[in-house]
Write a structure and sequence with these properties.
binds flavin-adenine dinucleotide; Elongation Factor Tu (Ef-tu), domain 3; 16 strands; 7-stranded antiparallel β-sheet; binds FE2/S2 (inorganic) cluster; 2 domains; alpha/beta; single chain; 5 helices; Rossmann fold
Length: 256
Amino acid sequence: MSKRIQDFKIVNKASAGGNCLLTLLPLGTPDLHDITPGQFVQVQALAPEVLLRRPISVCDVTPDGHLILMVKPIGNATRHIDSLAVGDTLNLVLPLGNGFDTSDMQGRRALLVGGGVGVAPLVFLARALTAAGASVDICIGGRSAADIAGIDSLFVPDAHLHFATDDGSAGHHGLVTSLNAFSADYHRIYCCGPTPMMKAVAASARNRGTDCFVSLENMMACGLGACLCCIEKTVRGNICVCTEGPVFNINQLLWN
Ligand SMILES: Cc1cc2nc3c(=O)[nH]c(=O)nc-3n(C[C@H](O)[C@H](O)[C@H](O)COP(=O)(O)OP(=O)(O)OC[C@H]3O[C@@H](n4cnc5c(N)ncnc54)[C@H](O)[C@@H]3O)c2cc1C
Ligand code: FES
């Protein structure tokens, strides 16, 4: 199915890691099967001084046909989304972006690494990889226990979760890259989180010669390839993260 503008009804609100978790029911066309892990939606926030839609990752598409979004309230748009109640509607443009490559993972091991709202796209990715017959380890990093509270309940039970916090208040005390799980062998590594985390994961993958994909969160405006404000410098030149990403093989990026 092609890109569409669609209303969704908020049917549940919860929180995880200090973020707002919205469960959305599609109105009109109920089919969400065309959405793949790593894609994002552009959310309309009808708040004062918010002109443009905001990009938010697809956190999950549940087997019973709900779309889950995880939103960190940091500015006018995300605070407005956070203030919405069960029964309110949200207007989305979807599905956008390329998504993660989950091909050839049957019977293989995947490592998923995330932090902050970068955890969001890994939830749907873990569901897809385990359904495809992959074994999935997930390493989640946060500053303290509050950043990872409730995150475990988002993931499919088959996934193996490992947590690290900067202050040691929950899980392993240290950076996510110092978790034991991190040193095992994997067919592919997937990462979404703060840029320093993604660069550290990319460097580790490169050293080990492991295939690695990262999901970038460059600032976006149109989300459709028209305004060029989300450009990333790559080995193929300057390209739009909104249409050719947000997921990139690290070999494509000019990261040291
Ligand atoms: C592909 C993609 C997926 C995303 N997925 C999620 C998600 O699942 N959940 C979520 O909460 N957020 C996500 N974001 C970030 C989200 O789009 C921004 O936080 C949001 O646009 C901020 O809008 P605002 O009006 O609330 O804040 P603004 O007032 O626009 O910004 C508040 C502050 O956040 C900074 N900021 C805004 N956008 C970004 C960004 N992309 N990266 C880093 N800093 C930013 C601004 O510079 C400013 O300092 C994603 C971004 C991208 C590009
Ligand atoms: S956000 Fe406009 S081109 Fe990517």
